[in-house]
Amino acid sequence: MSLGDASISDGSLVGAVDQGTTSTRFMIFDETGSVVASTQRPHAQHFPQPGWVEHDAAEILTNTWAVIDEALSSAGLSAGDLAAVGITNQRETLVAWDPATGEPLNRAIVWQDTRTNGIVSRLADGDPDRFRAVTGLPLATYFSGPKATWLLEHVDGLRARGETGQALFGTIDSWLLWNLTGGPDGGRHATDVTNASRTLMMDLRTLAWDPDLVAAMDIPLAILPEIVPSIGRLGTGVGPLEGVPISSILGDQQAALFGQGCHSPGEAKNTYGTGCFLLMHTGGDAVPSTHGLLTTVASQVAGEPPTFALEGSVAMAGATIQWLRDEMGVIDDASEVEALARTVDDNGDVYLVPAFSGLFAPHWRSDARGAVVGLTRFANRGHLARAAIEATAFQTQELLAAMRADSGVDLTELRVDGGMVVNDLLMQFQADLLNVDVLRPVVVETTALGAAYAAGLAEGVWADLADIRTNWQEGGRWQAAMDAGERARLTNRWSQAVQRTLDWV
Q1: In this structure, are strands 35-42 and 23-29 parallel, antiparallel, or unpaired?
Q2: Which of 95, 234, 441, 497 has the smallest number of Cβ neighbours within 10 A?
Q3: What's the CA gap between 16 and 35, in Å, rounded?
Q4: What is the pLDDT of residues 304-345, one digit of tens each?
Q5: Under a CB-based contact definition with an 8 Å cutoff, are residues 314 and 276 in contact?
Q6: 110 phi and psi, to 5 degrees?
Q7: Is 345 helix (H, G, I), strand (E, B) or coil?
């Protein structure tokens, strides 16, 4: 499955830009999927009002150039040593910029941001599933389209600029691709099908912008990027990537699914990052959900039909631990949370529901707000830390139950990745709650690995999907050790706690 000219490089090294919610990294992999180099830089999180979450797209771009330079230098490599580069990104985050100067026209609105609640309610007109048949998505603040509407309605002069070709909009992949392929000097304004499927504007059947949905959001079609396949040559790099093919774009969770070797129907992974995202591959069928999940594009190879996935999205996972550190001062570093949680034998009947941006799947309640319930004088910092860790596992359990109901598939194992999977306490509790084996790979940064695999596949570094799957290696396994009665008791308590968070707004 070679979609480009593999002769451009004698090497078999592939790079990946992994632009996430809290940081940007550049990783280089060899043909075995092993890490050759990795560099990372964080970027600022801006919270100008309650419910607002913003990023500086210019800072993200500066960091992207920097980590590319640093990774190549650290490994003694140059751009010519790379056969291809892929891009993966925080999906629903939206930015607008000036095509003449390359300057962002506003801070990027992050996927966690809830300022579009009024726009979403207006669009729903009493039916939050109004767009689901076309897009596979409920109407929610999570997705990109309403963010574009908000910018057009609230940033002075932006609508006029958009209507006259003086503004471009896109998710972060579009912003990076445009800049990495030349920016104002011929940069390509495009997004792939996985990111476009998270906007509330793409028709899953045609893989094109739906003119009725775009019109409903009052968005000029000309400001939106071209929609392209995920895997195939998208352009040629400039600067530190001079001459390197940019050959894949995958939204971060689709990239993780790809990197975990979940390429066949029924295979699933869960990524524990800032949020938590459970995806099950459904093959060529876009399976509709009746249990609060999302129907999304898994990937598309140029010239081939797309594949699809069912997804459950949780807003707060690692971000809950960050809240304990940054806002509450319970810990000084995220790495301390497991040790603190292990100072107690259990959660002390304390439950933390981190509905700081409302509740995502399977509830889709933007009116929910976070709560800690079950507190007594017995409760201490250890119980709160344990409740924060367990919250991610409880939310994942809700997603898996919905996925089982929609698909009829009972998972026998769950592959996991992301920053939180170094937490053994979380992994064991997750296996206990799900009553399935939890498997951690040797390379846990499968988001970057998936983007690299996709780019390398396009350029002939890997011959086919089977070639990629042989690289997957088990790095850890956890098996359920909790009896059914205790599992049921904890699950019931969590459900009670969730109910306490609703109807707050």
Answers
A1: antiparallel
A2: 497
A3: 11
A4: 999 999 999 888 999 999 999 999 999 999 999 999 999 999
A5: yes
A6: -80, 155
A7: coil
